[in-house]
Design goal:
The protein is α+β, with helices and mostly antiparallel strands. Helix content is about 20%, strand content about 20%. The protein is globular and about 40 Å long. It starts with 18 loop residues before the first helix and ends in a 13-residue tail after the last helix.
Length: about 160
């Protein structure tokens, strides 16, 4: 599996990582997704919540979702798998113009989570509370998992 992939994205999250939010997200994932094993990279001063998945999407045999959440409520949920497929949901300012994105919520589609302004989409996740965003990501991932397709990943109407 590839390492943490920032790809060609030229924007970043505002504010320091919110440990309390990552702990909330970890608890939700532990409770609601049986294929996931979430852990903080550093318990006292985390930079990321790493969620190892026992199975990936489509033909991938394993995967990971790296989660970052800041005190400004900016976030990234970045999926990567053993087949080198990447995508992510995010809410944070971005350099340049994403022609299909209003506000800060956006989705970088598979296979490479490109930051090309023509490819980045408005995120279907309109919530901004970490518990609701986490449930939405889990729901979208699970629907795509059962469908055996990447198509449902950003196709819901304001999940969860």
């Amino acid at each position: 599996m590839t390492g943490r992939n920032e790809t060609d994205e030229s924007h970043s999250l505002r504010g320091p990582i919110d440990r309390s939010a990552l702990l909330t997200i970890r608890t939700i994932i532990e409770r609601e997704e049986p294929l996931a094993a979430p852990s903080l990279d550093d318990y006292l001063n985390p930079t990321v919540l790493e969620v190892l998945l026992d199975d990936g999407l489509c033909r991938a045999e394993s995967a990971r979702i790296d989660v970052q959440w800041t005190t400004q409520a900016d976030y990234k949920f970045h999926y990567t798998d053993v087949d080198d497929v990447n995508f992510r949901w995010g809410k944070h300012p971005h350099d340049g113009d994403y022609i299909h994105v209003h506000e800060f919520g956006h989705y970088h589609p598979p296979p490479d989570a490109t930051a090309d302004s023509d490819d980045v989409e408005q995120s279907c996740i309109e919530q901004s509370v970490e518990a609701l965003v986490t449930r939405a990501v889990l729901k979208l991932w699970r629907v795509a998992y059962h469908a055996g397709s990447y198509d449902p990943l950003n196709a819901a109407s304001n999940p969860p």
